[in-house]
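Running co-folding for TLP.
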Amino acid sequence: MAIDLRSDTVTLPTPEMRQAMAAAEVGDDVFGDDPTVNELEALAARVTGMEAGLFVTSGTMGNLASLLAHGQRGQEVILGDESHIFQYENGSASALGGMVLHTVPTNPDGTLPLEAVEAAIHSPAHHYHFYHWAPPGVICLENTHNRCGGAVLEPSYFAEVAAIARRHGLPVHLDGARLFNAAVAAGRPVTAWTEHVTSVQLCLSKGLAAPVGSLICGPADFVDRARRMRKILGGGMRQAGVIAAPGIVALTKMVDRLAEDHRHARILAEGLAGLPGVTVDLEAVRTNIVIFRVASAAEAERVQAEAAVAGLLVSDFGAGRLRLVTHYGIGEEDCRRAVAILAACVRR
Ligand code: TLP
């Protein structure tokens, strides 16, 4: 079988998750009657230190329902140009919510320059006088940062963004698809970051290995609005306890083992660092994502194709970059084999 490092989304549910699915108590969640969904939502709220939680089908839906719940048509979503929301979510807040995506440049470490965030906020004074700009609706952060190689943003940086947001009366939404990776890497609880944001989206179906689902957590009134948005998006679910049950296993049993994925990513990064024609920033590899560079986009395409033939699947990240993601199901030996396969592909 191929070694699949395309993403941590390829993880398969654990045997315990399968059992939990079979045994889950269920009800109609649109009526609020699914005890397993209710338990998962309460658990997520507890873990993030938020008032309430909402189970959604995906990270993409979680981010979209959050943005729609925070802002109005015609308002701006201020976010990084390398953020997942901007790069991979089909402009959904614009397409469905009439919101304007206002990007600011992303630093290599996944932060957004504070001055750029501040400058992106058109204050009411500006637009009342001139009626030029869309008013701001919400600021978004991402942690860990996917396109910045799984970078971990510091809680102190979150505090600085929160201070700007507070000054302007704006909410902050965190795309925390891999927030548990940040927490494990930094040795901090997720509340170290969530205490600075208004809402957070957490994925269960990445490193935590659940088959499906994300949670949005935040203040109760925000979660009420997000629940309505989820219904509008067709995401109201009935006996969803069957998919919430593995989510409970994910949150209670699968977080600590992310440290293994991080160790495995180091093995990959250190192996790659020694290869001719490959550039990898070892300092930047702190979690389960390794992005490396080869000579050109064409070379990246060739390496990806040849690696696939040799039994290794990787993602092309554009501009000569390839991405490897470690996860549950990938062992140390797989990582060593992956390096050997890549070594053979790049040398030719
Ligand atoms: N990311 C996927 C791809 O879409 C690129 C991956 O393989 O990494 N936020 C972040 C930071 C993400 O990385 C992802 C998925 C999402 C949101 C969306 O989650 P899903 O796939 O559940 O909609």
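Result summary
The first strand starts at residue 3 and ends at 4.
The radius of gyration is 20 Å.
Job closed.
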